Amino acid sequence: MIAVLMVGAGGFLGAVARYGVGRGLSHALEVQWIPYGTLVVNVVGCLLMGLAAGLMEERGWLGPEMRAFLVIGVLGGFTTFSAFGYETLALARQGSLGAAAANAAIQVAAGLGAVYLGYRLAGSG
Fold first, then answer.
1. What is the pLDDT of residues 37-92, one digit of tens each?
2. Among 87, 89, 62, 78, which residue's Cα sits nearest to residue 3?
3. Residue 87's closest CA among 72, 104, 74?
4. Helix/strand/coil (H, E, C) string of 18-51?
5. 24-37 pLDDT, tens digit each
6. How far apart are the C-alpha atoms of 61 and 55, rounded to whole Å?
7. CB atoms inside a 10 Å sphere around CB 33
8. Fewest CB within 10 angstroms: 29, 48, 56, 107, which?
């Protein structure tokens, strides 16, 4: 039960941080030909996920509850793209380059397709 609470608390903090970064960048940048807030959140989230994973693997950093709080909660609430990046890199590091490429292609295509389908089901698009 402690792990569930840690994930929930971390998820709250990550989601609030994502909202703050996105809102802050949308107000700070006048020209927005791409969604900079999402781009920054995804890249920073992936950087932090790589840093955390490296520290956990190499140095045994953090116990299970704090890992759940930080990785699943905070970073998962901040951006699930970081989990996608980490899992794809893990496949590549295991030598499964085809699986890594397939994972990237499938996730992007399926995600975009699902958003489109959702719009169509809602009567839009």
1. 888 888 998 899 889 888 888 888 888 888 899 989 999 999 888 888 888 999 99
2. 62
3. 104
4. HHHHHHHHHHHCCCCCCCHHHHHHHHHHHHHHHH
5. 887 787 766 677 88
6. 6
7. 5
8. 29
